[in-house]
Amino acid sequence: MISNNSIDIPTELQQVITSEQAWHYQIIPKKSETNKLYLYISVSVMNTNVKDELEVLFGKSIELEEVEDDIILKSLGKYYRRKKDTRASATVFIPKSDDFLINLITEANEIGSSDIHIETYEERCRVRMRIDGKLVERYVLNKEDYPAIVNKIKIKANLDIAEKRLPQDGRIFFHTEDQKFDIRVSVLPTLYGEKVVLRLLSKDATNIEIESLGMTASQLNDYIEAIKKPHGIILISGPTGSGKTTTLYATLKILNKEYSNILTIEDPIEYTLEGINQVQLKETIGLTFASALRTFLRQDPDVIMLGEIRDGETAKMAVRAALTGHLVLSTVHTNSAWGTISRLTDMGVPPFLVANTLNLSVAQRLVRLLCPVCKEKHDFDPKLFPRNYKAPKEVKEHYIAKGCNECFYTGYKGRKAVYEIIPITHELADGIKAQSIDENKISKVATFKTLSDSAFELFQNGQTSMDEIYSILMQS
Q1: In this predicted structure, what is the pLDDT of residue 447?
Q2: Which residues contact 371 (CB under 8 A, 6 or more apart)?
């Protein structure tokens, strides 16, 4: 169905043709029958030979309907995302062999997807990919083929294919002529079968630069100053998927010198960096954050990176490592940079030890950036702000997401981190020891840019939309 200068295509119909076929012939599927295929085709490429060519290609009778070029191009950009290179695309027919899985992973990596969700429901099965933080439905699978795909994934991840009642976690080392990376596999039993999530750990940390992550000049200065200290703790907080690990590895890249011994314990190892000794967490055999950290202290380290401080034992070990002359980097799940202080004390770390060891507390979130090609300027109504939010500056105009071929009609292209960075000064340390500073009083004692300030600045500069930062402003 054609609406709003675009063609609406259900996922099942998208799979009738490949991305390469769609772009090469400028075609969009309209309806598919056993022996006949109905296609929309761009007016500019319609000729007498193309129908014969398509009938040979698909082995069916072809019925073509001419559509304006701009409608076809918009639909192609929306539903048939082009890869970053010209390698073969994923097989789009219902999978019958390992080729589907290999091509699915290859496609996900090429279009910048971080996760693949393979899930089953009562009537249908589907594959979704997370792109720029949002899930997009890519394929619909036959119900009867679904168990075979799950088993293939389990075999590759060395999991028990007979166990269908309990969750399982594994790892696949994906290696082709062009690509080599790890995939974390999680299998979860659900009402209608097993749901599988593949996390692509394909990022090489050598390309990460701390300057490009999103810190302001003053925040970057505070951050660099803190990591130059020979000992102490640097904590980064934020929800899952907020870019904490990326910030940590950008930091490790700076600290990675020939004369430094850097050890990490992670779950999973998301980045690889030459010169750093990385350890994969394995709780099933007793290799926990706390036990690894205990061993690290006997490995003569200069810098220790903990994937996450999850419990009191790990928190106390991290503090002990910092007290004995090591620089410790880690993450913690809190809503703000100052919230990490109360989280550590809640875990049983005495306030005077927190004050003596914490160098810097950081909070961060990821914000999608508006596509620079198609974003639209509009007059701004202050009522669009959250009810209790007080904007630091007046905003008269703002940009909203529209969608174009460049951004696959999402309106957004890429993401940027926004930060809240609090250096622990002598005055703040004294307040932590005396437990005289809480989240409401912190702004009176220290001057820093909050998460909402950083998000508002991106919005004011026209780089993102109110929809993207609304939840951050709500927490201010």
Answers
A1: 76
A2: 401, 402, 403, 404, 406, 407, 410, 411, 412, 413
Beta-carbon neighbour count of residue 85 at 10 Å? 7
Q: Is the dihedral of CA 471, 472, 473, 476 positive or negative?
A: positive
Cα separation of 51 and 41, whole Å?
10
Residue 282 has a CB neighbour count (10 Å cut-off) of: 11
Identity of the amino acid at 301: P
CA distance 150 to 170: 13
What is the value of pTM for the model shown? 0.81
26 vs 23, 36, 352, 405, CA distance in Å? 5, 19, 67, 14
Q: Which residues contact 10 (CB under 8 A, 6 or more apart)?
A: none
CB–CB of 322/303 below 8 Å?
Answer: no
Phi, psi at 22, each rounded to 5° = -60, -50
DSSP state of 404: -
Q: CA 342 from chain center: how many Å?
A: 27
C-alpha to C-alpha distance for 290 and 318, rounded to whole angstroms: 8
Pair 363, 336: CB distance under 8 Å: yes
By three-state DSSP, how is residue 289 classified?
Answer: helix
pLDDT score recorded for residue 335? 86
C-alpha to C-alpha distance for 287 and 289, rounded to whole angstroms: 7
- The mean pLDDT values, 10 residues at a time, for the chain of 476 residues are 76 85 89 89 83 88 88 85 47 47 88 92 93 88 92 94 94 82 93 95 78 93 96 94 92 95 92 91 91 94 95 94 96 91 93 95 95 94 91 93 85 93 92 83 77 94 95 86
Q: Which residue has the tokens 């989280």?
A: 343
34 by DSSP, 3-state: which? Answer: coil
Q: What is the pLDDT of residues 169-204, one digit of tens each?
A: 988 988 877 778 889 999 999 999 999 999 998 667
Q: CB neighbours of 434 closer than 8 A, spacing ≥ 6?
A: none
3 state SS of 274? coil
